[in-house]
Model the fold of this input.
Amino acid sequence: MITNYNHGKHYVELLGFVLDNPSLEFYYTENNERKFIKDDLTLKNLLKNSNHVFIEENSGSISGLILLWEARGGDKVREYVKFLVSSETVLSNLLKVFSYTSTKDLYIKIKKDSKYLQTFKNNNFQFKNGRGNEVLLMYKKD
Done:
């Protein structure tokens, strides 16, 4: 079941999920430095600066998290999708709900060789730009 994240109800389970599923694609940027979400402090910082946080849970067990994190760079303000999931199916489910509830264009930086790249493309994220081993995808909200 996909639901809005509730800090009081879900935090302990979410922290356990993050610790059990380390990912090089689950990070935020602070002072041009990537902060990987790997402990209580980095998770709290990410959640504090995020909005539209959804989780997929079944019987109290979390299998995925998706959220928007606002990034400012120069004259641009973009909302980036950040996610941590147990499978491509969970990501696809979360993206369907997420893109439906969003009111703005969405962006994600993702590695070119990520197993989740095709899942984003299958959910109407389009190539916007590429640099190094990453691509920038955009979901255009009409």
